[in-house]
Amino acid sequence: MLQAVCLRGLFLLLVVRQVYMEEQCLKASVNTCGDCIKSGSGCAWCKDLNFTKAGEQEAARCNTAAMLRDKGCSSNGIINPKNDFIKTKDKPLAPGANPVQIQPQEVQLNLRPGLPQTFQLHFKRAIGYPVDLYYLMDLSYSMKDDLENVKQLGNNLLTELTRITGNARIGFGSFVDKTLLPYTDTNEAKLQRPCSDKSEPCQPAFGFQHVLSLTKDGTKFRDMVAKQHISGNLDPPEGSLDAIMQVAVCVKDIGWGNSTRLLVLATDDGFHMAGDGKLAAILEPNKETCELVKNKYSKSNLWDYPSVGQIARKLEEQNIQPIFAVTKKMETVYTELSKLIPKSAVGVLSEDSSNVVKIIVDAYNNLTSEVILAHEALPDFISVKYTSDCKGGESPSEKGKCDNVNIGKEVIFNVTVTVDRCITSQSFLIGPLGFSEKMRVNIRTRCECECDDSNQPHPHCGGNGKVVCGSCSCDPGFLGQRCECKLGQKDEASLKAQCRKDNGTECEGKGDCLCGRCQCYSTDSGGNFYGEFCECDDEHCEKANNTQCAGHGKCKCGKCECDQGYEGPACDCIKSDKDCMTDEGVCHERGKCECNVCKCERGYSGAKCKTCSSCQRPCKESGSCVECLAFGTGPFEKNCSKACNHLKQETVERLLKYDCRVRDKEGCWMLFTMTEQRGFDKYFVKVLQARECPEGPNIAAIVGGSLAAVALIGLLILLIIKGVLYASDLREWKRFEKDRKHEKTSGTNPLFQNATTTIQNPTFSGDS
């Protein structure tokens, strides 16, 4: 039973693959054999002269080889180019050259776009492969005891490495930190002598200094290191990343050779990284260039510290394998750093660094026994995958990896290269990380057919063109399947009208109208526009993660056609409606489920389109339907069930509260609630059975009330007038009473006024 299911699944897979390949080949843009083989890795071209019928497009010659055979194409007529793998002859070794560890050293691939090519790379660790080791030491004051031991290790370290490889060199450099606050005390005296003990030798503060280039002379190493003195700084983190960057990029100054390159970093503290320079107002980022002037890092106080990413990239580019020899308290910090840097190791120093030789030897053995195969930056449209014959190497990955590869052991990596489209000749390098040896891979694409046709006019083309891979290539001035269309024999305006879609631009501006048909241009990236009016191309679809159709679909005529199980405008999500489902359907039937997320419509929102904050209940609009459904009256009483099928109604005797109050045609108020159902404009309506109908007017009460109101108003006016007159009389009476009272007390008539002028008769004398 299980076998039958598996066979059925395999059969379906083959059918789907066949259909997909056929769809790739059947493009309107295919006019030549070259167009055909560019359109898909499974496409073939039939060059038989009479394969296409009269009026049939040349694109019919392009299909899968199986379909072409089914349509009658001869076996010799099918053109289906395959990949070519050419192993370039390995160059003989020059006298004194390093032993070869990888084979082959160079290959040539002639690849058809979309068709993978796999070849083998053999790696075998050679005896006597040279080792370059650069010892980079922290000379801050806390490393005082360690420096004394390092001064004695030169010959020991060189002896151990020579015993293992037979060919070793060592070099030395040191670092502290930037000579700016807050990293270093900038007092002039402190800069010249940063050590706390004034009785011991101390060198001025510095960032990084290169002391000794790589050499085989252990005595010279010992003598140069013996001249070094301790220095100092303020804060615990050191400028170790500045030093590592200069050691990696100053290849000539350090003397790195064609060898296994080891960088030993000995320190007892952490490290500053990109961004820390802002504490000293250093804003310019590290530019990853060699800036040694008189063997000292000249940009230490001008450039920020490099980032961990910059360090990892530069070490990988230069095939340098770092060994972090650190104290116990720093082991966790540098272990985490090691995870970010390929081919790196961490060892714990003793209190005085006396075990540093053992750390280096152990780390070297571990690093060199792990082989990681990788490539440098790939040209556009090229992808590479690796598998190996090692344990765990069966699954394709971005890098090949093998562990426990001892000297003399050979491992085999399978390298699969795919080119997505036609490109110019390109090359890239593949090799094991930490080794300078690389294999060069040269790439050319097979995007043209080799048909060996005659260059003479052919009767098949009416003598107006020659046959190229079965189809006619017309002479200038002629067009058509058999070069039968001569310009000037037909009305040019009518021919051009056939090339305009909806009276728009001729061939959408992406092709030439020739003999009434659009001949489409190539796109900027080497593809083709296609379609009856050149309206399509396969290069301008939506992207996700900077990848067209997210890598889960094909771009067809500006739209992504997603692979099975993916959806979305950019095929960037797995097809599923699990999180969109509700008891009332997908997204409450108020939106679409895209990428397992509801895309709500018409103002609805929420995870499943349940609510609409801006939506109002359509009370007034539903009034006529409520009237006909509940009371059998109103404008829709004759076709109520049809006009109002979006409402479900129930009449109730009591309604605790209502949402809507709408008048019917009789002027009565209908009270009802509206509960939204799934979908749009669908409601369940509860209607109060009793309507609020207004009573008629009481004429007698209105007339009586009016008369009473008039009488009351008249009475009020009279009372107001009477009150005003009474108040006036009362005021006059009080004034009169006041005047009378004044006359009684003074004896003078208040109405009498004294004379203003007195006249006396001079002849009259009172004494006579």
Automatic annotation (TrEMBL):
Location of the protein in the cell: Cell membrane
Mode of membrane association: Single-pass type I membrane protein
Coiled coil segments of this chain: none
Transmembrane parts of this sequence: 699-725
Disulfide cysteine pairs (residue numbers): C33-C43, C36-C73, C46-C62, C195-C202, C250-C290, C390-C402, C422-C660, C447-C451, C469-C507, C474-C483, C485-C499, C513-C518, C515-C549, C520-C534, C536-C541, C555-C560, C557-C587, C562-C571, C573-C580, C593-C598, C595-C640, C600-C609, C612-C615, C619-C628, C625-C693, C644-C668
SMART domains, A to Z: INB (SM00187), Integrin_b_cyt (SM01241), Integrin_B_tail (SM01242), PSI (SM00423)
InterPro entries: EGF_extracell, EGF_integrin_2, Integrin_beta_N, Integrin_bsu, Integrin_bsu_cyt_dom, Integrin_bsu_tail, Integrin_bsu_tail_dom_sf, Integrin_bsu_VWA
Domain named PSI: residues: 24-74
Domain Integrin beta subunit tail, first and last residues per copy: 619-698
Any GO BP: neutrophil chemotaxis
Domain of life, source organism: Eukaryota
GO MF terms, alphabetically ordered: amyloid-beta binding; integrin binding; metal ion binding; protein kinase binding
GO CC terms, sorted: cell surface; focal adhesion; integrin complex
PANTHER family: INTEGRIN BETA SUBUNIT, INTEGRIN BETA-2
Protein name in the entry: Integrin beta
Provenance organism: Cyprinus carpio
